[in-house]
Amino acid sequence: MQTGPRNLITDVPGLLVGNASDAALRSGVTVLTAAAPFTAAVQVMGGAPGTTETDLLAPDKLVTQVDALVLSGGSAFGLAAADGVRQALRQQGRGFAVGSQTVPIVPGAILFDLLNGGDKTWTVNPYGTLGARALAAAATDFALGSAGAGTGATTATLKGGLGSASARVGAITIGALVAVNAVGSVTVGDSAQFWAAPFEIGAEFGGLGVCPDLAPVELPRLNVSPGEATTIAIIATDADLTQAQATRLATAAHDGLARAIVPSHSLVDGDLVFAAATGTQPLPDPLETPFQLGHVAALCLSRAVARAIYQATSAPGDVKPSWQSRFGSPP
C-alpha cells in the first residue's frame, strides 16, 4: 500500500486543513474545508460525545454537503469554534442557499482538555476566534502533533496530539485526520511500540515494529471523569460516495481507532468519525470498491493515531509526558 505524496489528509485533491492554537490556553482548533461543498457523514461510537450540526448528516436529511468540518478542544465551549468558521465562511459568500441568504454548513465535534494545566480563566470564549483563525490558515500542508485540536490532548500514559495519514486505492485517495485525547493508551504497556505498528508504512511513526512482549492486557482503571476524554477524527476520500456510503465509510473507520487505542469507544470517551467525500473519482465497482475503501480507511486512521502521539512535543506544565520526551525525538 502506498501513501499519498504528503501522507496527509490533504492528499485528497481539493481538501485543505488549518490549525490554530493558544499556548497559554493549551488548546486549539483544526478545520477541514475545500473550495466547494463536499458530501459528509458521521458515526458516533463513544459514550460522551460533544457535537454541533451532526444530526443533519444523516442520509435522510435535506442537506447532504457541508462547507467545513471542525475539530476543537475546549469541551462544550469549543463548539463555538464552528460559529467562528461559519461567520468567516458567510463573509466569503459560502453556504447553503436559502432565498437571498446563505447559511454555511459547518458540523463540528469537541474533545475535553479543560484540566490539562492551561489557563482557562478567560471571560470571553476564545474558540470562535480560534475557529476563524484555523479556517484562514487552511492549506495543503499543516503541522501534526501538538497543534490545532491536538494542542492540549492527552492519553492514558502520554501526551496526545493531532495526526494524519493517507493511502491510495487505485486512482482513489483516502486520508485520515484525528485529534487523539483518549482514556486508553496508544502504546503497548510501558513500551515505545504502538498498537498500530502492524499497519505502519515505512517509518512514519518510528519504524519500531510490533512490541515483542505482548503480555495479557490488564483490566484498565478509569482515571478520568465522564466527558474528560474523546478522540475525534475525519476520514476523507475523493471517491464519488453517496451520503449513505459515506456513513458506512465513517463506521468502518472506527475499527482504526479500536486497533490503535486500547481501550477505545468507552463510556467516557466521545469517540466520533466524520466522513468527507469530494466525489471527483468514480467507483470502479459499486460493491467491491466501497468495501476496500472501508478497510483502508480503518488502516489509515490507525496510522494517523500513532503519528499524532509520535509527533507531539513537550511544553512546560504538561500533565503527561510526550512520546518524544520518554523515548527520544523522531529522526
Describe the structure.
The chain is an alpha+beta fold. It has one domain: L-amino peptidase D-ALA esterase/amidase, CATH 3.60.70. The chain has helices at about 80-90, 125-135, 245-260, 290-310, 325, and strands spanning about 15-20, 25-45, 50, 65-70, 95-100, 100-105, 110, 160-170, 170-180, 230-240, 270-280. The strands form two sheets. Strands 1, 2, 3, 4, 7, 8, 9, 10 and 11 form a nine-stranded mixed β-sheet that branches. Helix 1 packs across helix 2 (about 125-135) and helix 3 (about 245-260) crosses helix 4. It is globular, with a radius of gyration of 18 Å. The mean pLDDT is about 95.
Set out the fold topology.
Layout: E1 15-22, E2 27-44, E3 51-52, E4 65-72, H1 80-91, E5 96-98, E6 101-103, E7 108-110, H2 127-136, E8 161-169, E9 172-180, E10 232-239, H3 243-260, E11 272-281, H4 288-311, H5 323-327
Helix pairs in contact: 1-2, 3-4
Helical residue percent?
Answer: 10-25%
Instruction: Give the N-terminus to C-terminus distance in angstroms.
Output: 23 Å
Mean pLDDT across every amino acid position:
93
Largest sheet: 9 strands, mixed
Number of strands: 11
Number of domains: 1
Judged by helices, strands and strand pairing, the structural class is: alpha+beta
How would you describe the shape? globular
> Any idea of the CATH class?
Alpha Beta
CATH topology: L-amino peptidase D-ALA esterase/amidase
